[in-house]
């Protein structure tokens, strides 16, 4: 698995995932808040299956040293 989720994208995914999971854990939102595990996991791992399927990549291009 090659990383396909860049820095800003990862940060936003982690924050959104944590927010949804926290809201679900405190009962602020319903069961659907636990879906925040998906963006949280893809943000932590740095790889997103739909991005791979469509050939998208938000990582910066690496230049040879």
The protein's oligomeric status is single chain
β-sheet strand percentage: under 5%
What percentage of residues falls in helices of 4 or more residues? 40-55%
Query: What structural category characterises the helix and strand content?
Result: mainly alpha
Defining key terms:
65 residues; mainly alpha; 0% strand
Concise structural overview:
This protein has 65 residues and is mainly α.
Describe this structure in words.
This protein is mainly alpha-helical and 65 residues long. It has one domain (7-54). The chain is 52% helix and 0% strand. The chain has helices spanning 7-25, 37-45, 49-54. Helix 1 packs antiparallel against helix 2. The longest helix is centred in the first third of the chain and has 19 residues, at 7-25. It starts with 6 loop residues before the first helix and ends in an 11-residue tail after the last helix. The model has no long low-confidence stretch (mean pLDDT 93).
Topology, element by element:
Blueprint: H1 7-25, H2 37-45, H3 49-54
């Amino acid at each position: 698995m090659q990383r396909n989720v860049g820095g800003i994208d990862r940060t936003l995914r982690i924050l959104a995932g944590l927010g949804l999971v926290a809201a679900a854990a405190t009962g602020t939102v319903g069961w659907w808040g636990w879906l925040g595990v998906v963006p949280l996991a893809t943000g932590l791992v740095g790889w997103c299956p739909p991005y791979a399927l469509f050939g998208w990549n938000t990582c910066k291009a690496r230049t040879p040293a």
